[in-house]
């Protein structure tokens, strides 16, 4: 057997070990991804959306819209369509009120994908795991989940990236039942 053929056979035999080694470092951020993650954390430390227009598409395809207010640790979504509703959320819990039928639903956020964005400050490490970073020209997309139980949901954030400044324009929340909700911030 030639030396080149022997080397290839040895590399093929080591392939499963090399793949396993790569898998164990999946949670370690490479320098470009670490820089992107730091930029997103900095964005959430300073963002203060006040009555920004939004459109939401629920998993069943129905559409709502209204005004959103977000600051570190707090979210308030006031729907005007399809009818008056409000979601008020803080670091640990949310209350959804439907003015049409008078119902009020309390939601714990400890295991919810939405809770990933309500820390004060938002930290994208430790209990939060960044699963994907994409940086095409003029855009930054980052997906995150809970490190201890990724099956509880995934949040994908899409930012416009112009002149080194990030502007959040799209949030996609995939819940534990694999149902997708999209929140699109409309231009002001």
TrEMBL record:
Keywords assigned by UniProt, alphabetized: Signal
Superkingdom, taxonomy of origin: Bacteria
InterPro entries registered for this protein in UniProt: LolA/LolB/LppX (IPR029046), TAT_signal (IPR006311)
Signal sequence region: 1-26
Protein name: Membrane protein
Gene source species: Acetobacter okinawensis
Lineage, highest ranks first: Bacteria, Pseudomonadati, Pseudomonadota, Alphaproteobacteria, Acetobacterales
